[in-house]
Amino acid sequence: MYEVFAGTLLKRPEAGAVLSLVAVILFFVIFGGVDLANLLGAASWVNFAANLGIVAIPVGLLMIAGELDISIGAMIPAGSMTISIVSGYYELPIVVGILCTLGLGVLVGLINGLLTVRTSVPSLIITLATLVAMQGLVLSASVLLTGKASVPLAAPEWTKAIFGQLIGGSFQIIIFWWLAVAVLAWVVVHHTRYGNWLFAMGGDKESARNAGIPTTKMTIWLFVLSATAATFVGMCGAILFNSAQVSGGMNYIFNAIVSVVVGGVLLTGGFGSIIGIFFGTLTFAVVNQGIYFTDIDRNWSSLIIGVMLLLAVLMNNSFRSMALNYAPRKKSTSKA
Amino acid sequence: MTEPVLELRNVNKSFGPIDVLHDINLTINAGEVLCLLGDNGAGKSTLIRTLAGVHKPTTGQMFMDGEAVSFDKPKDAADRGIATVHQFGGTFPLMTIGRSFFVGCEPTRKIGPFKVFDRKTANETAVKAVQEFGITRIDDGDRLIGGLSGGERQSLAIARAVHFGARVLILDEPTAALGVKQASHVLRIVLEARKRGIAVIFITHQVTHAMAVGDHFAVLIRGAVAANFMRGEKSREEITDLMAGGEALADLDTAMEDYKDSHDGHPPQPASRATVA
Question: Does A270 touch chain B (CB under 8 A)?
């Protein structure tokens, strides 16, 4: 039994995330007096996880490929402001607003991607620059065009149904978008050649290029994906809450990176899994929102996240070396 | 006699004002191991990068099967069957054997309209390819490359190159970082590749390893072929001397530089001129 467990789960990238999730829930139940049924039935952390997860997956893909995108922090408010200004303030059809929003994501993603492949500047610095630049652009554009830093949006019913309705009164529709994105990403990353290219790029970009992988194109597309995902999350928020603010979104940067790293993705690239990122996001959401269901004071949640991050990364490290040192012992196992 | 698989005629390579390779003439035939010997900085790396399509020769020509070729990028050389295996073999330590074996040319199977990575075929093919080279310890394609020993990685990389139809195999110091036993594994694999009719270019500065597998030797000193001979034409001592000769030359050069430094940049004058003055 132990052999099976050790052989299948522990040498996989998601091992740390799954164990962290179990550990956090156990911790809350034992020390926080949480009613498990209550926690599992709650919408707050699932909604939180879905919004974060849609950004965390493309950010995780970039990290597997050895890059980083922190401009998402500005792209989320940029997305919600774009649709609110275009379809709310100027009252253009909502379809135009949606296209402009996603188009902005594609555009900024292209800028990030092109700058990364054309220069030797690390993508952390490039996206830090676009992060700050986009913050300034969104704020000044908003004040210049509408005179305010907060714009209302009244989306038609059908768009609300697709992007911003509450199912059962509390579950955001974006949960389904998240699941769809996760399944799609899982298929592409683990079951197509593109996934193989991704891991090769993260392992050694030079060798990957020599092996004939279009690394430049892949990198640009990954940046387009993450920026567009961020504007999508912003857009869904604006449609759901009928308004958009210039501020906010900065938390997503660290939240997404923590989720991805807890999920077993190696910061230097080349190792990770979609299932891991998925569970990393869930774990983060449970700590962040689940703490309200406990007797523990809310102020402790950051401490718990910090400790959890450290433990998860240490676990991931030892699991990775287990995977590296793993030699097949199938014969002895089957006999035993 | 048939045309050599690969031939270099008067190949020169300069980077800006620095001339690295001088009039390199080399031929290599199918089923032959050419050992390229030379000290660090002798131009071995530049030469193999030129062969692999990373650099283009400044002047001179390369021929494959008697036909002039010119490579714009490494992919061009790879398409003609020139494969390079670097010192550390598998370069993706965190990928599985099956996945890294097929990086860039993944086998797929169709599920409906979708092309899906065929992990089973990939693993089986990779394991079979490396076992054919006598490395029977590798029997699970799901193992990570990083968990293999240095010799196994080299062997896997060589098996990979051969599997994808390499005709010229460039091995860049494959035994440099290995222990005695591991190195002998790799040497055996080199002989196996030769047996299959592959032209092997084996770069090393370990004369013993070169003597064990080489049919044909070329010693590179300061970017030029200082000696080019067949197996049995020179003894181990002579080869070592040749390589050391390169070192002695370098010493002489330093002595010259030192002299210039202490004489306002003037080189030492020949004795005859000194007497005239």
Answer: yes
Which segments of chain B does DSSP mark as H helices, in order? 44-51, 74-79, 97-101, 119-132, 150-163, 180-195, 207-213, 236-262, 271-276
* Interface predicted TM-score of the whole assembly (ipTM), two decimals: 0.77
Does residue B244 share a domain with residue B124? Answer: no
pTM (2 d.p.): 0.83
Is there a contact between A327 and B93 if contact means CB atoms under 8 Å apart?
no
**Which residues are within 8 A (CB) of A107 and not within 5 positions of it... i.e. 6 or more apart?**
none
Residues B274 and B171 in one domain: no
A304, A333, A312, A328: which is closest to A13 by C-alpha? A312
Closest CA to A292 of A280, A281, A304: A304
Quick one: B143 and B260 in the same domain?
no
* Number of structural domains found in chain B: 2
Query: Residues B216, B242: one domain?
Result: no
pLDDT at A336 over 60: no
d(CA B67, CA B63) in angstroms, rounded, equals 5
The answer to whether position B50 is within a domain reads yes
Question: pLDDT class for A84, splitting at 50, 70, 90?
Answer: very high
Q: Identify the H or E element spanning A314.
A: helix A301-325
Same domain membership, residue B39 and residue B164: yes
**Rounded-to-integer distance, Cα A226 and Cα A228, Å:** 5
**What whole-number distance in Å separates Cα of residue A223 and Cα of residue B47?**
37
B112 interface with A at CB cutoff 8 Å: no
Residue A198 pLDDT: 94
Identity of the amino acid at B81: G
On whether residue B1 sits in a domain, the answer given is: no
Mutation for testing the B interface, residue in A10, A189, A210, A322 having most B CBs under 10 Å: A210
Chain B residue numbers with beta carbons less than 8 Å from the beta carbon of A191 are 116-117
Answer whether residue B252 is part of any domain: yes
Quick check: A109 and A224 in contact, CB under 8 A?
A: yes
Report, as an integer, the average pLDDT of B9-21. Answer: 89
Range of the domain at B110: 6-234
Q: Give the phi and the psi of residue B163 in degrees, each rounded to 5.
A: -60, -40
Domains of chain A with bracketed CATH: 13-322 (1.10.3470)
| Cα separation values, A57 from A53, A163, A188, B194, Å | 6, 19, 12, 47
Q: How far apart are alpha carbons B177 and A251 in whole angstroms?
A: 46
Does the beta-carbon distance from A199 to B147 stay under 8 Å?
A: no
Contact B117 A271 (CB under 8 A): no
